Amino acid sequence: MAKKPSAASAKKSPVKKASAKGVKSIAKKLSSGTKSKSSVVKKSPAKKGKTPVKKVLTDKERELREANVIANSEKKKKPAASKRPKKITTEKETSTLLDAIVEGMQERKAKNILIMNLQEIENRVTDYFVICDADSNTHVNSIADSVEEMVEKLAKEKAYHTEGSQNGEWILMDYINIVVHVFLRETREHYNIEGLWGDAEITHIKN
Q1: Which pick of 18, 43, 91, 128 has the fewest CB atoms within 10 Å?
Q2: C-alpha dist (Å) from residue 70 to 23, 56, 79
């Protein structure tokens, strides 16, 4: 009678057959030019990490970021034209402008007109303030309109900057070396410009 295969030989024979088949299949794939799945999985992460395309994109991103930083810093710089200009005038021109402003105020019956000479004060914002007050918002706007018209007529000047006409409580008219303040009476008392610039030489104008 034929001997039955031992348990050890029964266990080893399938392994040998399987390994032989595996070798043949791998050899067949290599000869046909295809790669096994295991080889692709192992090599793909290395290729992704070393691709030249990713490196170039990173460099471009860095360059673009640096360019944006430079562009933003340039935008933040204030142009020279935005600065408040300086105005050189003679004493006669200044006197003519002051007279025109006061006459425009008096034309619409402004109250408590005064001129503040700031020329002896350090860090002043202008040379003169001309201040008056009014009884209502409509009166404030009316005085400001009169000052603007009279200055254009007599001094041939236009305000560099005007603000406050919308609410009619405090209209500021900037003629560079002279700044006009037309107040609602309560607003003038609240801000007390005369007190803030107490060192100025003050000239009261009679109505």
Answers
A1: 91
A2: 62, 21, 16
Q: In which residue are the tokens 């640096």 written?
A: 66
Q: What are phi and psi of 98, to 5 degrees?
A: -60, -45
pTM of the model: 0.60
133 burial via Cβ count (<10 Å: 0-12, 13-18, 19+): buried
Residue-wise pLDDT tens digits, 99-134: 999 999 999 999 999 999 999 998 888 999 999 999
**Residue ranges per domain, the chain?**
36-71, 91-204
* Beta-sheet pairing, 178-184 with 170-174: antiparallel
Residues 57-90 pLDDT 10s: 566 566 666 666 656 654 454 444 446 677 778 8
In the block, which residue shows the tokens 């002043």? 124
Q: Are the C-beta atoms of residues 169 and 182 closer than 8 Å to each other?
A: no
Query: What's the token pair of residue 71?
Result: 């562009």
Annotate 139-188 with DSSP letters as a single string: HHHHHHHHHHHHHHHHT----SEEE-TTTSSEEEEE-SSEEEEEEEHHHH
| Total residue length of the chain | 207
Class of residue 61 by CB neighbours under 10 A (exposed 0-12, middle 13-18, buried 19+): exposed
Give the DSSP letter of residue 200. S
